[in-house]
Design a protein that fits this description.
By secondary structure, this protein is an alpha+beta fold. The chain has 16 helices and 26 strands. A hairpin with a 2-residue loop joins strand 22 and strand 23. The termini are far apart.
Length: 595
């Protein structure tokens, strides 16, 4: 004869089969289990057509408060009989847990205090649910009330990437994504122009607050008698390199002075660990978040004081751009700051120009690429979004080539001396694109392999150099700082970072630098779209790629690309007029049309 049991929360009929029970489940399936795996309800005979009758639950509870009884006793008290149906009904009452609680195979009647507490908790839950649903209704209608602040905060946390799910978005039938949350906040008017991308990527948005040690008392070569020029964009606030070149019988002598950051930031120091944690300066249209305390720029930035400490690269270079001799020394320098435009009018920089163009010719002859796509600087000045195209001054090339020469020389020195070093590398592009114009540069950039920083030397094919290292921005990039730490240790005969320690720094800094670059790119695009939404735009676009009936256009004045339907055939590099139509700020997308 089958007895009534509960197995995994469902009624079942059990028949003994040796030391096991064979169960028949409500869906007709049969399983064999151990006796201890079931809860016994009734000895039978029984069926699984169980419809418990109405009973006197409250009266039974009043009588039993605080007592422990069997399910059989509870069934008799509540229903007046012990049958399979009433036994299952008693089980359900205990399982529900309102007045009775199943404890093992017996049932405890809750005390009055427990029941009142449960009822109060239920009332609160129901009230919270009512308020939640009312708040969701108001959000759906676009009229949030002050009492909906907690719901808004949940959506904001989702938009900022600080939580992975949102009951509010789910209730509104929206995807649980940062973009959907951002869109809702815009529709509600809670957000207007907020840039969520740096916080969404988990980046630190305040400068470090760490003490800066004094500059060590050490021998430095006095180069204050030599001219030195820190040449950068007009609004640059962190000048960390300066240059000067002169003609000599062998060709040229080049001085590249770099802010001597490693003099104050030693490996494993708190400043070093903090810089590694950040990876690089974060340049946003809203402002710069430095990887080092702001004081480091004032103390070490070149040209901010009358005399500055530097690590100087003195290079003798042939007229064809070949490095003949290099020397690295800690120095004192007197630096004059210039904008790229101002540098064009300084006759003293003519040797630098000639040297830069010679070295550039050499790089390009060795397979280096010359990609000069339009760029813009985006700044938020008060509430005004400013977009300024970067002029293609030739002086930019002078400075870039001087930096390349310093990095080339540093990489050669590190290889020759066996220094563990962060080498910058890049594999050859997937293809070489012939032709001129922006469309050829665009296609060539698409074929580029990603540049990588490694602890072992390898060519940098994009630059056309057999070896290269970034060493001229230690105030702004952590691995440039690491390179300086290695060079200073080598100069002083001190212990170098090991290959393992260097690899750890390369991995940590590159991971963070990827996030920094993504935040900078998305933030720049965010504010360009805000500008377009507020001011509109009509201007030139240059066709750089065709995709079926669509064209990819570069908009030089905005530093933006747009995919636009082609109403008529156009050749590559054709210049047209485009008009802005609309933007999807959360998705960072803009639509334009051909005029």
């Amino acid at each position: 004869m089958a007895v009534l049991v509960v197995y995994k929360g469902r009624p079942a009929l059990a028949v003994e089969k040796g030391d096991r029970l064979e169960l028949t489940l409500p869906d007709g399936a049969r399983v064999k289990v151990r006796p201890k795996d079931v809860l016994w309800l009734h000895p039978g005979p029984a069926s699984l057509e169980l419809n418990p009758p109405e009973g006197e639950e409250e009266a039974a509870w009043e009588l039993l408060q605080g007592q422990v009884v069997d399910l059989k006793d509870l069934a008799e008290l509540v229903y007046g009989a012990y049958t399979p149906e009433t036994a299952y009904g008693a089980y359900l009452l205990a399982q529900r847990g309102e007045r009775f609680l199943l404890e093992g195979e017996r049932v405890r009647a809750r005390t009055r205090e427990e029941v009142e507490a449960l009822l109060e908790a239920r009332r609160k839950r129901e009230e919270q649910e009512r308020r939640f649903q009312e708040g969701v209704r108001r959000l759906r209608e676009g009229v949030p009330a002050p009492e909906d602040r907690s719901l808004i905060q949940e959506v904001e946390a989702m938009a900022l990437g600080e939580r992975g799910e949102s009951r509010v978005l789910r209730a509104l039938g929206l995807p649980e994504t940062p973009e959907a949350a951002h869109g809702l906040l815009l529709r509600l008017g809670v957000w207007q122009r907020q840039n969520p991308h740096p916080r969404r990527l988990g980046l630190i948005l305040v400068p470090p607050e760490l003490p800066l040690p004094p500059l060590p008392q050490e021998k430095r070569v006095d180069l204050t008698h030599l001219p030195a020029y820190a040449i950068d964009d007009e609004e640059s606030q962190d000048p960390d390199d300066a240059v000067y070149a002169e003609r000599v019988p062998e060709g040229f002598q080049l001085w590249v002075h770099v802010a001597d950051v490693a003099a104050l930031v030693e490996p494993f120091s708190p400043l070093d660990q903090e810089a590694m944690r950040r990876g690089a300066n974060l340049y946003l249209p809203e402002g710069t978040v430095p990887m080092l305390p702001q004081e480091a720029t004032w103390v070490l930035g070149l040209g901010l004081k009358e005399v500055s400490p530097a690590l100087t690269f003195r290079l003798k270079v042939s007229g064809e751009g070949e490095i003949l001799e290099e020397e690295i020394v800690p120095s004192w320098v007197r630096v004059r700051r210039l904008s790229y435009r101002e540098a064009l009018g300084v006759e003293e920089l003519a040797p630098l120009r000639d040297l830069a163009l010679a070295f550039r010719r050499k790089r390009l002859a060795q397979g280096g690429l010359d990609l000069r796509l339009p760029e813009v600087k985006v700044r938020l000045e008060g509430q005004e979004v400013r977009i300024r195209p970067l002029e293609a001054y030739e002086s930019r090339i002078w400075v870039q080539e001087a930096m390349h020469l310093a990095g080339y020389a540093a990489a050669h020195l590190a290889l020759r001396e066996g220094l563990p070093f962060p080498f910058a590398t890049q594999e050859a592009p997937a293809s070489r694109v012939e032709g001129e114009g922006l469309s050829a540069m665009w296609e060539q950039r698409k074929a580029l392999k990603r540049a990588q920083l490694k602890a072992v030397p390898a060519p940098h094919r994009g630059l056309g150099l057999p070896l290269y290292a970034q060493v001229t921005s230690p105030l702004r990039r952590y691995l440039d700082l690491v390179a300086h730490q290695q060079l200073r240790a080598w100069l002083k005969g001190e212990k170098l970072l090991s290959q393992e320690e260097l690899l750890q720094r390369v991995g940590a800094a590159e991971a963070m630098a990827d996030l920094v670059r993504e935040a900078e790119r998305k933030s720049k695009l965010h504010w360009i779209l805000v500008y377009l939404m507020e001011k509109g735009y009509e201007g030139r676009g240059i066709l750089v790629e065709k995709r079926g009936g669509q064209g990819i256009f570069l908009l030089p004045e905005l530093g933006l690309t747009a995919q636009v339907a082609l109403s008529k055939p156009l050749p590559l590099d054709a210049e047209v007029r485009l008009r802005f139509l609309e933007a999807d700020l959360p998705r960072l997308e803009a639509r334009f049309t051909l005029l």
